[in-house]
Amino acid sequence: MSHHYIKAENLDYTYYGGTKAIEDISFYIGHGEKVALVGANGAGKSTLLLLLNALLFTQRGSIDIGNTIITEKTASYIRRKVGFIFQNSDNQLFMPTVDEEIAFGPRNMGLPNDEVEKRVDMALEAVKCQDLKYSVTSHLSGGQKRSIAIAAVLAMDPEILLMDEPSSNLDPYSRRLLIERIKSFSHTCIIATHDLEMVWELCPRSIAISEGKIIYDGPSKSLFYDKELLKECRLEQPYLAQIEQMKESEKIRNCN
Asked: What is the largest CA-CA distance in the chain?
């Protein structure tokens, strides 16, 4: 079994005040899988990502990340191994220039300067943003900020990537660049998103959450063809799924 896996068993999480965010969630995600986490706002997607990155701790059950159980003692190790790209890049970027931003994590890991510089260059190459190396982070566009946020995580050499609404607020060109970059990643990925067109391209598997519970875990396309289940998740059928169904209906009519 590869160590780039996530095994969640019977997770519960209730926020202060009694709001139940996650209830009895279990799943296994293997090495290299790209899995979408879908559902309406408030379904529990972001809370689940926070649990998987040890920013919150489950109140019942367990999370095994590559043979390491998440606890308060293992949290710092988990956060190095599980990279988290936040929905709002401004919450993630805090250094004045791009090279300083990407170098921050490796420097805090105690790596020597030559290794830090190497990781900065490799991370920028991975997101095709070498020309932004010395740019001021506050002057970047939304799409550029998202790419640099991803680069900063990649520089930490994580085994698993968690992404919270990575395509939100991006223009069509920036969104397309993001999709192509994610396609090239070999990491195990969980992508929480409402962008089902992106899921169609990137994620063969989807986990659908409603009111803190998993109501579907399986092939993304099977979910997209199930209009009743999509309605239960408060999601709309992706346009590409509509096109595929129209093509299938046309084939059936032609055969008859």
From this structure: 69
Q: Residue 142 falls within a domain, yes or no?
A: no
Q: Find out whether 198 and 177 touch, Cβ atoms under 8 Å.
A: no
Structural domain including 240 reads: 6-94+157-255
CA distances from 155 to 30, 86, 113, 205, 232 (A): 22, 16, 13, 27, 39
Which of the 8 DSSP states describes residue 91?
A: G
How many percent of the chain have pLDDT more than 70? 95
DSSP type of residue 131: G
The H-or-E segment that residue 145 falls in is: helix 142-154
175-220 tens-digit pLDDT: 888 888 888 888 899 999 999 999 999 999 999 999 999 999 999 9
Q: Treating both helix axes as pointing N-terminal to C-terminal, what angle do 113-126 and 142-154 enclose, rounded to 10 degrees?
A: 130
Q: Could you report the per-residue pLDDT of 119-160, keeping only the tens digit for each?
A: 999 999 888 889 999 999 989 988 889 889 989 999 998 989
Q: Is residue 18, in this structure, part of any structural domain at all?
A: yes
Between the alpha carbon of residue 126 and those of residues 80, 119, 153, 189, the distances in Å are 18, 10, 11, 16
What local confidence, expressed as pLDDT, does residue 2 receive?
57
Helix H or strand E encompassing 207: strand 205-210
pTM (two decimals): 0.87
Domain count along the chain: 1
What is the structure's pLDDT at 236?
86
- Rounded to a whole number of angstroms, the distance between the first and last alpha carbons of the chain is 48
In the structure encoding, which two tokens stand for residue 226, read together? Answer: 């199930």
What are the φ and ψ backbone dihedral angles of 218, each rounded to 5 degrees? Answer: 180, -160
